[in-house]
Amino acid sequence: MLVIVLGTSCDKGFDDLNTNKVNPLQIDPLYQLNNAVVSASYPPSSSLSYDIGVVQQIISPNNGVLNGANFNSDNRPNTQVIWQNYYRNVIRNTHDVLVNTDGVADRANLRQMARIFQAFAYMVLTDEYGDIPYKDGAKGYSDQNFFPVYDAQQEVYTDIIVIPTPVFLFLPDVLGTASADTRCARHLHPFCFALFCSSEVAHRRRFRSHH
To answer: What is this structure's pTM?
Structure first.
């Protein structure tokens, strides 16, 4: 009898006890875009220290981070930093925003913001590495594509260079609208807010032209 009581009591409240009630099931795409913008900054010990010798003549008798510029060698601990950070934290988030805002009318502005910033991220990647996964990039989860095709740098630039022009036409002065994006706009990173939500159209055109 005791065995039966103990055996049946193990399941009491089991599901409720093992459910994390504070774990979000969905993430607002706005915060994912914000995370992508913040993650686009170069982390410490990044390949900035590896690339700096390309744009500034530095003579060093020692091996290390300057190998890339001085000896054209692949210092892998440094060359992989931007690749890993951008695909894991920038491209992944902007791709999720595009997937989750497709066909959602009140997130149209947010969708265009993500397209612009994703184009910028791919520009950084192709400038750094040449041929990269572009059309299949970040589709490991959404499309279960774990072996993306590498696109030639010429094809990448041909595509991303035309993205900002039509996209900026779809970005009105969101501060003057009542969309969901406007209500959440103040939660954006200051740079992201100033770029995408400013009433100054010149800010958007400057970003488009420079990048």
So the answer is: 0.72
How far apart, in whole angstroms, are the C-alpha atoms of residue 66 and residue 47?
Answer: 10
Provide the greatest CA pair distance for the chain.
84
Domains of the chain in sequence order: 28-42+77-210 (1.25.40.390)
132: β partners = 151
Give the span between the Cα atoms of 137 and 157, in whole angstroms.
15
Strand partners, 151: 132
Q: How far apart are alpha carbons 33 and 148 in whole angstroms? A: 23
Give the closest residue to 120 by CA, choosing from 8, 3, 36, 50.
36
Model pLDDT for residues 16-66, shown as the tens digit of each residue: 888 888 877 788 899 999 999 999 987 665 556 666 666 666 666 666 656
